[in-house]
Write a structure and sequence with these properties.
The complex is a heterodimer of chains A (335) and B (271).
Chain A lengths: L5 E5 L11 H15 L3 E6 L6 H7 L4 E5 L9 H15 L3 E5 L4 H12 L3 E10 L5 E7 L4 E7 L5 E5 L17 E4 L11 E5 L13 E5 L9 H11 L2 E4 L1 H5 L20 E5 L5 H4 L7 E6 L6 H4 L2 E4 L2 H21 L1
Parallel strand pairs in A: 1-2, 1-4, 2-3, 3-9, 4-8, 5-8, 11-12, 11-13, 13-14, 14-15
Antiparallel strand pairs in A: 5-6, 6-7
Chain B lengths: L1 E5 L2 E3 L1 H9 L19 E3 L1 H15 L5 E8 L3 H10 L3 E6 L7 H14 L5 E5 L10 H9 L3 E10 L7 E8 L2 E8 L2 E5 L11 H9 L3 E2 L16 E7 L8 E2 L5 H14 L5
Parallel strand pairs in B: 1-4, 1-6, 4-5, 5-11, 6-10, 7-10
Antiparallel strand pairs in B: 2-3, 7-8, 8-9
Helix pairs in contact in B: 3-6, 4-5
The chains are: A alpha/beta (335), B alpha/beta (271).
Chain lengths: 335, 271
């Protein structure tokens, strides 16, 4: 039998040093813990970020639970799964919400397998039904549908949350201070079985964190035209992205792919050039504050999601947009 | 080397997408099942790439038996396709998918693998294109005590004196990562692996004669609680899309582009 506590678990740090998605998932955690009349814990694996206390206060966290161990200094699946398994065995929370980073996509289901408990990924909402049971709404069919799962069983349920689909809602005022607890786990026998031969080359900022993204798709016609996308991204001080078809065709490196199986982004501005707007792609950018779409097909799905649209050939339009942006910037520079 | 590939039959995601975009995706009376009979069923694309990964290991000289297993309502067509692609064995675990969940399906697949001589390598697609959950592979790995390497774009043998091992190139948000893992291991395959092959007509004909082993789930030594769903699908719905696009036009491409940039500044989206 579990306690009623809700735990939000984060570890993956973004460029700002904060755990990716923490505030969004804490928002969902607070809502759920309130309905359950339960405590909200924030579990931090590895070193504690400087701002953790402040964030915890703003999101109604009752306890910050810390697990520190040399084996958790950088991400390794086996020690992380073991640490979380021991945590859940000791604390028996009702629900563990993970910010669904790339690594969490592996850790969350493995943890559920260890615990013998239910797991749902791509979560965007959690509701408590009349009997106190948990229902998780998750994205399915690449974003075409929402699937609602009822979680059952006596053990801690594990849910991966798409932080980029949520908006952080800090509590009014300064909030109350959280208790910090050191949780002891024994990772002596948790040896990582996967050996890293070559690390991923980190290419500066991640596209997830970009404020402006310019993305290209098949409408670009051929690989060499992708440079227009890069040029506009550069002119705007943003990053270049791509839809899956042109990544699969080998025009662009997979690290640029925006979509369900690529990066899930939430920029302030997303410019989609020659992208039809299939759900698979929109799953990676629909949460943008504003989407501007350029597509030659007036019926393209992208216009349903876009705030601004131009029907036309992106090869004609992109150079003009680049020119217009550069002209504005030059004008402002002079002013 | 014994390779087991787990595969799932799904509704064609492109067809689902087309219906969804046209606003005509139907959900049945149970409130959760997509009911359009015109949407074809096919092998999950990522799982087909997992079969391709197995075949590429064989092409590269690995002596292996490739078994493709599927748990579902009626995986016969999927398994015939797998046989035509080059699977040596095909196995069907008949289950009423509506009564199970990812956890119970993973229990069945893991128990099947354990019962049938185990595996040096289990391959799965990174996720199924219907529920997008991507948890069955990790659960199977956990149940079988195998390390799980996710999102592979390439696999090769990297054997050592300690035994069979694999070198896997993973697609991560920070670029490619190369890892090694000792077998037995489970690897999930992503679309970056590249186009899977097409079966030849001759192989398709030969595959028709291959009969799947039909697994008797009662003989898998599972406890009743293993088959209890823990995350049961109760509803499904189509989310609404706002659809309030401001269409911008101009006499020339330059004029339209200029107007777009102007609007972005006016609305403080660009500063």
């Amino acid at each position: 039998m579990t306690s009623n506590a809700v735990v939000v678990c984060t570890w993956d740090r973004g460029h700002d040093g904060l755990p990716v998605g923490a505030e969004e998932v804490l928002t969902l955690g607070r809502k759920t813990s309130k309905t359950l009349g339960a405590e909200l814990h924030w579990l931090l694996l590895g070193p504690m970020p400087d701002q953790a206390m402040e964030i915890a206060a703003h999101y109604g966290v009752t306890h910050i639970d810390r697990i520190e161990d040399a084996k958790l200094a950088s991400f390794q699946p086996d020690p992380y799964v073991e640490a979380l398994t021991q945590y859940c065995a000791q604390q028996t929370p009702k629900l563990l919400l993970c910010s669904q980073t790339f690594d969490a996509r592996l850790v969350a289901p493995r943890l559920a397998g260890r615990l013998g408990s239910g797991v749902v990924m791509n979560g965007i909402d959690v509701c408590v039904d009349v009997d106190g049971g948990l229902e998780v709404t998750a994205s399915a069919y690449g974003g075409d549908t929402r699937a609602v799962y009822a979680l059952a069983g006596e053990r801690t349920c594990v849910v991966g949350v798409l932080a980029n689909a949520l908006v952080p809602e800090p509590v009014e005022g300064a909030g109350s201070s959280s208790k910090v607890r050191e949780i002891q786990v024994d990772l002596a026998s948790a040896e990582e079985r996967i050996r890293t031969i070559e690390q991923a080359r980190t290419q500066g900022p991640r596209i997830e964190e970009a404020e402006i993204i310019v993305a290209g798709g098949r409408g670009l016609g051929s690989p060499e035209n992708y440079k227009l996308v890069e040029e506009l991204a550069q002119a705007l001080g943003g990053m270049a992205g791509a839809s899956r078809p042109i990544v699969d065709e080998g025009w662009v490196d997979p690290s640029r792919q925006v979509g369900l199986t690529g990066h899930i982004t939430r920029p302030g501005l997303y410019i989609a050039a020659g992208i039809s707007g299939a759900s698979q792609h929109m799953a990676g950018c629909a949460a943008a504050k504003a989407i501007a779409a350029i597509n030659s097909d007036p019926e393209a799905a992208i216009f349903r999601y876009a705030r601004y649209g131009i029907v036309g050939d992106c090869l004609e339009l992109l150079p003009e947009v680049i020119r217009a942006v550069k002209a504005r910037r030059a004008q402002r520079g002079e002013a | 080397m014994r390779i087991v590939v787990c595969a799932k039959e799904v509704l064609d995601p492109d067809a689902v997408n087309n219906y969804a975009l046209a606003g005509g995706l139907q959900i049945g009376e149970d409130g959760k099942t997509l009911t359009q009979t015109t949407i074809p069923k096919l092998i999950n694309g990522f799982d087909e790439q997992a079969i391709e990964a197995a075949l590429r290991l064989r092409d590269a000289g690995t002596e292996c038996i490739i078994t493709v297993v599927s748990a579902g309502d009626d995986p016969a067509n999927l398994l015939k396709h797998a046989a035509a692609l080059g699977a040596d064995e095909i196995a069907s675990i008949p289950v009423d998918a509506s009564q199970g969940d990812c956890y119970s399906i993973a229990c069945l697949l893991a128990a099947y693998i354990r019962k049938n001589g185990g595996a040096d390598l289990v391959l799965c697609g990174r996720q199924a294109s219907d529920d997008d959950q991507g948890v069955v592979a990790a659960l199977i790995g956990e149940f079988l005590g195998m390390p799980v390497v996710t999102i592979a774009r390439a696999l090769e043998r990297a054997d050592s004196p300690n035994g069979a091992a694999l070198r896997v190139t993973r697609v991560t948000p920070d670029g490619d990562e190369v890892v090694e893992v000792t077998c037995p291991a489970l690897v999930t395959v992503s679309n970056e692996l590249g186009e899977p092959r097409y079966p030849t007509t001759a192989k398709k004909l030969a595959a028709r004669r291959m009969k799947p082993t039909v697994v008797d789930t009662a003989e898998l030594d599972l406890r009743p609680e293993d088959l209890q769903p823990r995350a049961k699908l109760v509803r499904q719905f189509v989310p609404s899309v706002q659809g309030s696009c401001e269409m911008i036009s101009g006499a020339t491409a330059a004029a339209a582009a200029e107007r777009l940039v102007e609007r972005l500044y006016e609305d403080s989206i660009l500063q």
